[in-house]
Amino acid sequence: MEMKRFVGQVAVVTGAGRGIGKACALRFAQEGANVACLDMDDAANAQTVEECTANGVEAIAIHCNVADPDNVDSAVQAVQERFGRIDILVASAGVYSGSLLTELPVKQWQRTIDINLTGVFICNRAIAPILAQQGSGSIINIASMAGKTSWPGSAEYSASKSGVIGLTRSVAMEVAESHVTVNAICPGNTKTDMVRFVASQIGGRDGLSTDEWLASRANDCPMKRLAEPWEIAGVAAFLASEDSRYITGQAIEVDGGMVMS
Ligand SMILES: NC(=O)c1ccc[n+]([C@@H]2O[C@H](COP(=O)([O-])OP(=O)(O)OC[C@H]3O[C@@H](n4cnc5c(N)ncnc54)[C@H](O)[C@@H]3O)[C@@H](O)[C@H]2O)c1
Known about the structure:
Blueprint: E1 10-14, H1 19-30, E2 34-39, H2 42-53, E3 59-63, H3 69-83, E4 88-91, H4 106-134, E5 137-142, H5 155-175, E6 180-187, H6 193-205, H7 210-220, H8 229-240, E7 251-254
Parallel strand pairs: 1-2, 1-4, 2-3, 4-5, 5-6, 6-7
The structure holds nicotinamide-adenine-dinucleotide.
């Protein structure tokens, strides 16, 4: 059954150039939303926009560094000028860098926190009031299973993702009476460029090739496989849909059973 739940709505997706953000942009376009794609990688972002518009909706690419408040504010203004409204934010832009504690420079810690945590805060701060004023809308922050569990060399990444979960709860409470929902998704290992980078870093440290490390991660998962980006996007679409209006402030694992609590 083809569903088009978001006709006439506008979705803003950060990190739309690749991976989970791209899958979310495409899913919302397939379901009839106009999509604003925010990313720093202009070539990749332009490609996402082209694939979105192939679904008969409007899509725009906006160059935006989510860690820069001026960038985000002018991006949000551009979206409002073009589409006149915003209904959905998917905050997916993020980076991974993993070093063991004693080899982790403050600069690297700071960069991860700036993009993964402060970037989500800045985007939520820019868009939550617009949704609240409208009296409807959904924010979906892409956290990680690393927000609920950790591994050696995940200090700054886990800290940033735990931070996103805490931020999500607070924003959810501030806009709850306005019928706006705010949730986090905590993906497990998902087949994107990022996970291959993680594999090369952590796998390299453990003497495993990228493919060997990915296979070992799949083996650790109760479902014995990694996630496809569209499996994360499907949950984002659910969290923006009419079927989830009473879910807010949650951090939902989409990880094949890796983290259970
Ligand atoms: N892939 C996984 O296994 C996995 C698991 C859990 C959580 N996540 C999270 O999902 C989100 C997306 O990850 P992905 O795997 O799709 O990564 P990816 O590297 O494939 O894509 C990330 C996108 O974000 C963009 N980006 C990076 N920094 C940016 C910035 N400062 N401003 C704007 N755009 C920026 C990149 O250009 C890229 O297009 C991230 O927040 C990541 O932490 C990923």
